[in-house]
Design goal:
Length: 151
């Protein structure tokens, strides 16, 4: 059985001393706050408000991730397509996933996990974004007729 592409449900897990299902009551997008609070010993609370930013999710070395404008990134999941940054405190941002995330994951399974990368075709940060078709040059306007001198 191939190693699946990692979503946040499989990444942000409770510590071994807690029951394995102790994060199940936390919305998937908010688990990063609980996970990071435990690991850093800092109290991290998810923001309340929404931000107007919309981010594209991508697969990076076998993990669904979202990049924040501040430069931080976190593992994410198409099952709860929103993200709030644990580093800069930006509110909840909507995420753009492919129409069929399962199909994207399936097409990546033939690659070794560390080679599994995918970018949304509309993501401006996509390094493989197709170049727009060159548009034909418009016909130059004909030169205006020289005006006849008036006497
Ligand atoms: Zn941030």
């Amino acid at each position: 059985m191939p190693i699946p592409v990692v979503r946040s449900e499989a990444y942000y897990l409770p510590p071994p001393r807690e029951p394995a299902d102790s994060y199940d009551c936390i919305p998937v997008a908010e688990r990063v706050f609980t996970w990071l609070s435990y690991r850093t010993g800092r109290r991290l609370i998810p923001p309340v408000g929404n931000a107007e930013q919309v981010y594209f999710a991508r697969v990076n070395q076998n993990r669904w991730i979202v990049d924040c404008a501040c430069g931080a990134a976190q593992v994410t999941s198409p099952t709860d397509p929103r993200s709030a940054c644990t580093q800069c405190g930006l509110g909840w941002c909507a995420l753009v996933f492919p129409a069929d995330p399962d199909a994207v994951e399936t097409e990546l399974l033939d690659l070794l996990p560390h080679l599994r990368n995918w970018w949304h075709p509309d993501d401006p940060a996509n390094p493989n974004r197709p170049e727009p078709e060159p548009q034909p040059e418009p016909e130059p306007a004909p030169d205006p007729e020289p005006e006849e001198p008036t006497s």
